[in-house]
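Before going further, learn to read the protein records used in this course. A complete example follows; check for yourself that the lines match position by position.
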Amino acid sequence: MAIQEHDQATAEQASKASISTSEPKTAPTIEQQTAPTTEQKRSNVVTVPYKMTETPWWKGSTSPLVISVLSIVIMVALVSFSIGTGVTIGSGGSTSAASSDTSSSSTTSMSSTASTPTTANVPNATQSFGNQPAHYVIDKDGVKHFTLTAEQVMWEPVKGHRVLAFTLDGTVPGPVIRATAGDHVRITLINHLSQATSMHWHGLEVPASQDGVPGVGQNPIAPGQSYTYDFTLHDEDAGTHWYHSHDNDIMQVTGGFYGAFIVDPRPGSPQAKVEPKSDVEYIEMISELGAYYVINGKSFPDTQPIKLKHGQTVRLRIIGASEMMHPMHLHGGFFNIVAEDGHTLQVPIQKDTVQVAPGETYDLTFYGWAAPGSIYPFHCHILSHLMNPGQSGDQMGGLIALVEYAK
């Protein structure tokens, strides 16, 4: 009798299972929920086709297995999207290049879109060294008027090795603008590049409209166009400063588009009273150019020496026109840090190595105590920065300038 009851219960459950696959399952009554029979309890352990109780979809999705599967699917989708985006960007270069000429009318971004420059039809530099004095004329209203031309040339960091450079007046660095606090100056920038540009006066107190930042104070200067900056130098501007591109700057500044801007203190001003004294003065702009580490656009052994006579005091105006940190070390003694970012220190700091970060300027002085004919290196102390492309570890290149005492 028990066997018959069991067979009957099994048959009933199989019948219910087949019906449930073709018809929607109805909700159980209260009596069925609260008073299950012995046969129903026993059917839970009988091997029959299993049917999951219907529950909301999201409850099952919280199991570890489902979460793992979903995570894998999402990651694969993201990777596929990234690859597709990269291919799209890579194939869209010509569109970006075509839009560079129209970027001069945009005032919503800090940098214009520019095509990758080529060396085709770029002339070789006609001058060997930068840091030449910038020439000016006196306008009818008494203003000093400088004119600079942005242009590409093939520049030699070392003799016989040319790299594409973005220059002012064809040299790296560009001409040295020198004026006196209180001067009213105008600087016209003519753009002969194939992309937009602008000029930023790093460290100077100028109106926002003259600060050279596209999208903030001015429109970019389109190819073939020019722009004239007009501002007055203040007493607080006295010191070592510099200028550089501020549009397409990741390409232009690292390509040599920079120069020194020296403001001498106004006679009788508080700045004039604390101006460091020296017998000779050098500007050292530290940067990279292509695969070369350069001082004033040159890599050793083509860097220009720092020349002095025994007993003289030398002033070095160090400018970090670089994308990297360069700890500059002087052999044969110590130097005094007499100014930072153009401002004279009340108390000089004695060191033999100074960390020159991108954008910083330092004024250093040292006394020429050594015997006539002595030679000492002034160099970056990151040793990999003392090599030129293709050199071995026993050769010197890069960021080295020799301090040479006259015989």
Q: What stands out?
A: The helical segments are 2-20, 30-34, 38-43, 57-60, 64-91, 93-99, 249-252, 270-273. Residues 1-11, 13-61, 81-110 have pLDDT under 50 and may be disordered. Residues 87-114+122-275 form a domain with the Immunoglobulin-like fold (CATH 2.60.40.420). DSSP finds eight helices and 20 strands in the chain.
